[in-house]
Amino acid sequence: MSEIISIANQKGGVGKTTTAVNLAASLAEKGKKVLLLDIDPQSNATTSLGFSRGDYEFNIYHVLIGSKKLSEVLLETNIKNLQLAPSNIGLVGIEKEFYNPKKKNRELVLKEKLKEVSKKFDFIIIDSPPALGPITINALSASDSVIIPIQCEFFALEGLAQLLNTVSLLKKTINPKLKIKGFLPTMYSGQNNLSKQVLEDLSHHFKDKLFHMKKGKECIVVPRNVKIAESPSFGKPVTTYASTSKGSIAYRDLATVIVRG
């Protein structure tokens, strides 16, 4: 069965999509069969892999409303072992349906849809929207774990308590297996005192939930890196666009830790 990992944070601009795309690509590089599931209406993960709206007719919206099977919307990417379930702005329409209290098990729609393909992949990485709405709840309800990217900037920890409470509530009710796989510091600059302070705060509060290549070594951080910022405009993950960059190394290290378990 697939290991299903959501990348979630209700704050925007924290490197959530960047993490989803590059973790998925790095896992695929390691020979793992990976599905990247884009359930953000902004569809940034889809465009980050080089797809535009005219490249596909159906997307995850059609899966969630039941008009298509998940296997029918999957796209082959330019990266071996990596497939994509694309998104589209039309996905915002699903929010209204998910908010309908008369709809039974509305938090479990995505979980049911994933059953069809769960044996075909080693990992399913879910890029969720920057909000704690019904779509993100569906993602967390379907997942084994969640990775929370946190940018090393002012207000980094703002709103985090709400996300942690949501994860805790879902664990107690809908998804007992859900766990926090870890916090991933992003946009880190070693020359910036604020970055250093945020990383110190994270290490203090969540020491056991940061990713380490080796015990006792510094945690994995994603640096503020121009190659990471440029790569989506070329429709490539940074691991392909600039494979030797510091950003690529960070995401490959993260994938190594994930595979190691």
Characterization of the model:
By secondary structure, this protein is an alpha/beta fold. The chain has one domain (3-260): Rossmann fold. The chain has helices at residues 16-29, 44-48, 60-64, 92-99, 109-114, 134-142, 160-172, 193-205, 226-230, 238-241, 246-260; strands at residues 3-7, 34-38, 75-76, 82-85, 123-127, 145-151, 179-186. It has a 7-stranded mixed β-sheet, with helices on both faces. A hairpin with a 5-residue loop joins β3 (75-76) and β4. The protein is globular and about 50 Å long. The mean pLDDT is 93.
Secondary structure layout:
Elements: E1 3-7, H1 16-29, E2 34-38, H2 44-48, H3 60-64, E3 75-76, E4 82-85, H4 92-99, H5 109-114, E5 123-127, H6 134-142, E6 145-151, H7 160-172, E7 179-186, H8 193-205, H9 226-230, H10 238-241, H11 246-260
Parallel strand pairs: 1-5, 1-6, 2-4, 2-5, 6-7
Antiparallel strand pairs: 3-4
Helix pairs in contact: 1-11
